[in-house]
């Protein structure tokens, strides 16, 4: 049996908690920005995904008017760093509501390294940094979807592997990404399953009779 829940009945806060408990796991955008005054900011955002292939774009959502959003609005640049398992506690610590004039890099003990194509710094300890310029910011209720065009991807050579098909790409096991769940829960990479997409010409047709699906 299922129970129906509506935003009107629960209210925005409780429904938000419900929503983030079922939209799981969520990849984390560890967003680096720089204010117009030159202060480096770093914060995790768990509403994050790829938004376009060509040109390459990624997006994160700022719930409320946070430092990341303000800085991107002022400078039109940001960097998304991979949030990896070895930095679990420090990633969480960058979510602390530091005053805008205090840099999370220094407060949390992370190394700010210069980016190649944008002004905001990269996290030197992170194996991946996607340097972005602002494409658009879409206001939706109390949140803003920030879409950035990726102009450079700085990736640690050690995370690349070549598979049986000759494709040399970052290996998710070496990246060891973290993800957000509900409540205060996070997750690490678990079992990895592989399956190929079925071309229509090879469609087996047996799924329609699969009562276990």
From TrEMBL:
<dbReference type="InterPro" id="IPR002563">
    <property type="entry name" value="Flavin_Rdtase-like_dom"/>
</dbReference>
<feature type="domain" description="Flavin reductase like">
    <location>
        <begin position="21"/>
        <end position="166"/>
    </location>
</feature>
<keyword id="KW-0288">FMN</keyword>
<comment type="similarity">
    <text>Belongs to the flavoredoxin family.</text>
</comment>
<keyword id="KW-0285">Flavoprotein</keyword>
<protein>
    <submittedName>
        <fullName>Flavin reductase family protein</fullName>
    </submittedName>
</protein>
<dbReference type="InterPro" id="IPR012349">
    <property type="entry name" value="Split_barrel_FMN-bd"/>
</dbReference>
<dbReference type="Pfam" id="PF01613">
    <property type="entry name" value="Flavin_Reduct"/>
</dbReference>
């Amino acid at each position: 049996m299922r129970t129906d829940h509506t935003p009107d009945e629960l209210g925005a806060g409780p429904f938000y908690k419900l929503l983030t408990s079922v939209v799981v796991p969520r990849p984390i955008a560890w967003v680096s920005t720089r204010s117009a005054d030159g202060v480096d900011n770093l914060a995790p955002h768990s509403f994050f995904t790829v938004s376009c292939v060509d040109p390459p774009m990624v997006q994160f959502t700022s719930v409320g008017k946070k430092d990341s959003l303000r800085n991107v609005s002022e400078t039109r640049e940001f960097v998304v760093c991979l949030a990896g398992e070895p930095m679990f506690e420090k990633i969480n610590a960058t979510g602390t509501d530091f005053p805008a004039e205090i840099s999370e890099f220094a407060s949390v003990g992370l190394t700010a390294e210069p980016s190649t194509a944008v002004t905001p710094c990269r996290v030197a300890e992170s194996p991946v940094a996607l340097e972005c310029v602002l494409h658009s910011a879409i206001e939706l209720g109390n949140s803003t979807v920030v879409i950035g065009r990726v102009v450079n991807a700085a990736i640690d050579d050690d995370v690349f592997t070549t598979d049986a098909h000759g494709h040399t790409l970052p290996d998710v096991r070496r990246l060891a990404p973290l993800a957000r769940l509900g409540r205060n829960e996070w997750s690490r990479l678990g079992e990895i399953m592989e399956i190929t997409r079925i071309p229509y010409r090879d469609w087996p047709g047996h799924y329609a009779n699969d009562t276990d699906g």
